Amino acid sequence: SMGICFVGKRNFENFILQYLQPRPGKFISIEDNKVLGTHKGWFLYTLGQRAKIGGLREPWYVVEKDGTKGDVFVAPRTDHPALYRDLLRTNRVHWIAEEPPAALVRDKMMECHFRFRHQMALVPCVLTLNQDGTVWVTAVRAVRALAPGQFAVFYKGEECLGSGKILRLGPSAYILQKGKSKSRVAIEGPSDGPGLGPVL
């Protein structure tokens, strides 16, 4: 996380490193896999956070983390498509009034709204109920900096329906754009002109 409210005005990195051993890793560009610098531990960063990379003037932002290798993948803009996703899966949802809402049980899908940060604007979405009580959440528009471990809280009008911990994320808008570009190349094939490829 970018901060912990109950520790007061302390440096987050210094506080965490009092309790966890440093696990050095690399900052890697999501666009070209170039190593941009090093860090003291992937667990010090949250998705969407600005990564302070020594020697670079322009800001880079955390878009993915690999806890196994210790790498933190970064993108060059706060609005980079690698920060945006429209699909997530929660664990078993804790429903407040109904377990789960009758409309969701009947139709297996339900329109509502969700948020995953306190005071963020509600985002229209469609919930899809799985047999194990987990839900897939499809946002009407891509949302910035969704992260596993956060809680998706669901609303219908003014009523809070319940919440579930985010377990998995769908592909980012950047990955989807790359996939579309690759499929266009495959569909269009090579061009006849010298040095001219398909228009992407």
TrEMBL record:
Pfam families: tRNA_Me_trans_C, tRNA_Me_trans_M. Transmembrane segments: none annotated. GO terms for biological process: tRNA wobble position uridine thiolation. Signal peptide: none annotated. Residues 86-166 form the tRNA-specific 2-thiouridylase MnmA-like C-terminal domain. It catalyses: 5-taurinomethyluridine(34) in tRNA + S-sulfanyl-L-cysteinyl-[protein] + AH2 + ATP = 5-taurinomethyl-2-thiouridine(34) in tRNA + L-cysteinyl-[protein] + A + AMP + diphosphate + H(+). It is an enzyme of class 2 (transferase). GO terms for molecular function: ATP binding; tRNA binding; tRNA-5-taurinomethyluridine 2-sulfurtransferase. GO terms for cellular component: mitochondrion. It comes from the Eukaryota. Its EC number is 2.8.1.14. Catalyzes the 2-thiolation of uridine at the wobble position (U34) of mitochondrial tRNA(Lys), tRNA(Glu) and tRNA(Gln). Required for the formation of 5-taurinomethyl-2-thiouridine (tm5s2U) of mitochondrial tRNA(Lys), tRNA(Glu), and tRNA(Gln) at the wobble position. ATP is required to activate the C2 atom of the wobble base. Belongs to the MnmA/TRMU family. This is tRNA-5-taurinomethyluridine 2-sulfurtransferase. It comes from Neovison vison (American mink). The gene is MTU1.
